[in-house]
Design brief:
560 residues; alpha+beta; 12-stranded antiparallel β-sheet; 4-stranded antiparallel β-sheet
Length: 560
């Protein structure tokens, strides 16, 4: 695959290193994504020199390596690979490759011995060992009391490495450049084959290549607060692991990579607050409880059990079961006023950050949240049966019945579902957000006329050439590139397709699946998409989009 590093960063499975081109300046940086997306990530700006003069250059990147060509030259001046998670290798063949540090006040580099420089990066609590394995390395870094004024490293005709670590460097033997490149190629090919449906048509190959690479290259290894390998949402802008995003990534991984899939869930079960709330997101340095996303762990785990017997192991079911019970208690104890349904305290709680449902204020009783919880109670009842917890199974069933009755009483009338807002729980008049149609997830509980009405509503008011708009295009709230005010999102698309499929609306499910698969050929694996042009929007290298695409593609070809 020809990789556009302006759209998709160059990286590899397990690594915090990545290389990307900035859209505004077109500068290319070696970056590091420790610390999450609020931390600085730029390490070095890359430039090429010939006879000491900076030259324009071109980039040719694949899944395995990234090459740099001085314009007009046929042979690569330099090449970079990531043969191991903490190692970045550079081979320079023609001209010079210059690394200019994007440094902070105290950042400093020092020569420990010939060809061995240690770079201390204070804001990231990170160290880099810069090694000259064979070649010429010239470091300019004038000292000024508490740090270097600037740092420039020029490399020519040889093999060089940057290795990252937190405390101490341990000397080691490094693979020759070509052996390291071959090692990465094998690792990636194995991953690609595990992601590609056996019978997939060539028409979807560009999307398969993007999705396979994005999911592979967006994983980081355990470090700091991350005790499991984590598939970040992206290494472009949004480099954290978010709940509920993690669940869609786990779903795609479940069949071929069950342990990695379970790790995506376990990260949040291991960081669950004593109140029962999952964090909003986690990275190696920080855990945020500002918001808590929709409770879909049980929903996803039930599907994972159908993919691989690994998930039927009783100890794992028990762990998910006990953790989900705490989540449900959290909504009952801390998100429910007496006689009402559980509420959101911010649009971010729902995952639909700026949806029109939330424009009047907070808190909001929303039918999607009630539906997620009802569905979770129903699944918990089935888990309880498996685990021999007969009384708890009956209790969960009663809670599901009770919440369903309250949902239909408080948030439904002859015109459909709606929300309530504020301390007095006043009706929200606006009903133009797609979020209000998510009770289709529990169509197995709805009167058929209600479910049929939801399906007809989707087709008449939300379905476009490319799929389901998140805000009705006829709504005054609809906004081009409006995040949750119109653009198509992969996870929501999956939720509706799955709900349609399991509740007998197969034609609609198949039609929306095909539209989403085709959409990725137009807009790539972006965070979201314009519903009328298919253009990819916001972050263009998103894992949950990639995971949903691969999941739906496997379903399309009967592989799942």
């Amino acid at each position: 695959m020809k990789l556009d590093i302006k759209e998709i960063p160059f990286s590899r499975f397990g690594s915090y290193f990545c290389i990307s081109e900035e859209k505004d300046s077109n500068d290319i940086y070696i970056r590091d994504v420790h610390g999450g997306d609020d931390a600085p990530s730029r390490l070095f700006k890359i430039s090429l020199l010939e006879d000491g003069v900076e030259r324009e250059f071109e980039v040719r990147a694949t899944e395995v390596s990234i090459q740099f060509y001085i314009k007009g030259h046929k042979e690569a001046a330099a090449e970079i690979i990531l043969p191991n998670e903490n190692e970045l290798h550079i081979q320079v063949q023609n001209g010079e490759l210059r690394l200019t540090a994007d440094k902070g006040k105290y950042d400093s580099i020092m020569e420990l011995q010939d060809g061995m420089f240690e770079y201390h990066i204070y804001p990231k609590e990170l160290k880099l060992m810069v090694l000259n394995l064979e070649g010429t390395m010239n470091v300019q870094a004038p000292w000024n009391i508490i740090g270097n004024d600037f740092i420039e490293i020029c490399l020519s005709k040889g093999h060089f490495t940057l290795e990252s670590y937190q405390t101490v460097y341990k000397e080691k033997e490094y693979l020759p450049f070509q052996e390291g490149k071959d090692q990465v190629a094998k690792l990636y090919n194995d991953w690609f084959q595990s992601m590609k449906p056996l019978q997939a048509d060539d028409e979807y190959l560009p999307s398969i290549e993007r999705a396979a690479y994005i999911t592979w290259s967006s994983v980081v290894h355990p470090h700091g607060l991350l005790r499991e390998p984590a598939m970040y949402m992206s290494k472009l802008w949004m480099y954290n692991i978010w709940s509920w995003d993690n669940c869609f990534n786990a779903l795609n991984l479940g069949k071929e990579h069950p342990e990695l899939a379970y790790s995506q869930l376990k990260i949040f079960m291991d960081t669950q607050d004593e109140s029962g709330a999952y964090p909003d997101f986690v990275n190696d340095k920080f855990i945020s409880y500002n918001c808590t996303k929709p409770p879909i762990f049980a929903y996803v785990y039930g599907q994972l059990m159908q993919k691989n017997d690994y998930f039927k192991e009783r100890s794992r079911i028990r762990e998910v079961y006990e953790s989900t019970k705490k989540v449900m208690a959290y909504y009952g104890n801390y998100r429910t006023f007496e006689g009402r349904l559980p509420h959101y305290k911010h649009g971010n709680d729902s995952g639909w950050d700026n949806a029109s449902l939330f424009h009047e204020g907070m808190p909001v009783e929303a039918p999607d949240l009630a539906s997620f919880l009802i569905n979770s109670y129903d699944i918990l009842a089935s888990f309880a049966e498996i685990l021999g917890e007969k009384e708890e199974a009956a209790s969960f069933k009663e809670k599901a019945d009770s919440m369903f009755n309250l949902l239909m009483e408080r948030l439904h009338d002859e015109a459909g579902f709606y929300g309530r807002v504020g301390k007095d729980a006043e009706r929200i008049a606006n009903r133009s957000s797609l979020i209000l149609r998510l009770p289709l997830m529990i169509a197995y509980r709805l009167d058929k006329t209600v479910a049929d009405g939801l399906v007809a509503d989707l087709e008449e008011n939300f379905e476009t050439q490319f799929g389901l708009a998140t805000e009705s295009p006829s709504s005054p709230y609809y906004k081009e590139n409006g995040y949750w005010l119109g653009p198509i999102w992969a996870p929501v698309t999956y939720l509706f397709i799955h709900a349609l499929k399991v509740n007998g609306y197969n034609d609609a499910a198949d039609r929306l699946r095909k539209k989403f698969l085709d959409l990725t050929l137009e807009g790539g694996m972006a965070e979201n998409f314009d519903p009328f042009t298919g253009k990819g929007l916001v972050d263009t290298s998103f894992t949950w989009t990639s995971s949903v695409f691969l999941q739906l593609l496997h379903e399309q070809y009967g592989d799942d």
